[in-house]
Amino acid sequence: MTNALITGANKGIGFEIAKELSGRGVTVLIGARDEERGRAAAERLGARHVRLDVTSEDSVKAAAAWIEEEYGTLDILVNNAGVIVPQDDIRPSATPLEVLRATYETNVFGVVAVTNAMMPLLRRAPAARIVNMSSGLGSLTLGSDPSSPYFDLNLMTYNSSKAALNMVTLAYAKELRDTTIKVNAADPGYCATDLNQHTGHRTAAQGAAIAVRLALLPGDGPSGAYMDDEGNIPW
Ligand SMILES: NC(=O)c1ccc[n+]([C@@H]2O[C@H](COP(=O)([O-])OP(=O)(O)OC[C@H]3O[C@@H](n4cnc5c(N)ncnc54)[C@H](OP(=O)(O)O)[C@@H]3O)[C@@H](O)[C@H]2O)c1
Predict the structure, then answer these.
(1) Candidates 7, 79, 80: which one to mutate for ligand 1, based on the most atoms within 8 Å of Cβ?
(2) Measured between alpha carbons, how far is 233 from 127 in angstroms, rounded to an integer?
(3) What angle do CA 121, 71, 47 make, to 5 degrees?
(4) What CATH number has the domain bearing residue 201?
(5) DSSP state of 221
């Protein structure tokens, strides 16, 4: 039996990842910070939910303890929970530090907190997979290329949080390179979800596809990669 924890899986891309993995026979654990939203999403899939606010150390610890007690091991961790903290003026020079901190709490520190708490369970699985939901907006190469559509999307808080997440992904992949665990970053593309007031041109289900692929990678698959549906993305 393969099990998977998806953070922020009560809606959007996370829910679609949960749905797809569940359809493929994986025992899915819907991570949700709100009990009711988590339960409702889990009921829709016939899955289980676990209360998990990635910014709360107590919540992360409790979720890890519960998974350990119920399953003893974790095969797949998808660090999907992510935020764009609203800002009236997105210029870097007008960015309040609290907006930057709140963004990093979820998009960067939350990923490290959850990954570290789950690591003993992941190490016990025969070949665990960690997928971090990044974004093409975290690419330094694309962000510095005037011909890239990302060049003018200069949202410092979110973009830099995803660039940091990319390096976090690489760091874990290097630490774990002599194990069977693979750690990769996924870019779902621009998907219509609450995150962007449904302005994306792709569906959440389309965005979920690359995460599902990386969650189910075979033994000869990559680790320390940054990928979308088309293949590798420049860092
Ligand atoms: N949509 C896009 O175009 C796009 C593009 C590139 C990357 N991404 C990334 O894809 C991931 C999913 O985004 P989405 O578009 O599906 O956004 P979404 O619909 O807004 O969903 C975000 C999910 O994260 C959860 N979340 C937020 N803060 C959390 C916390 N502290 N603890 C636990 N869960 C938390 C939300 O829970 P609540 O319901 O409780 O708020 C929700 O379930 C994010 O990492 C995002 O950065 C999205």
Answers:
(1) 80
(2) 24
(3) 115
(4) 3.40.50.720
(5) S
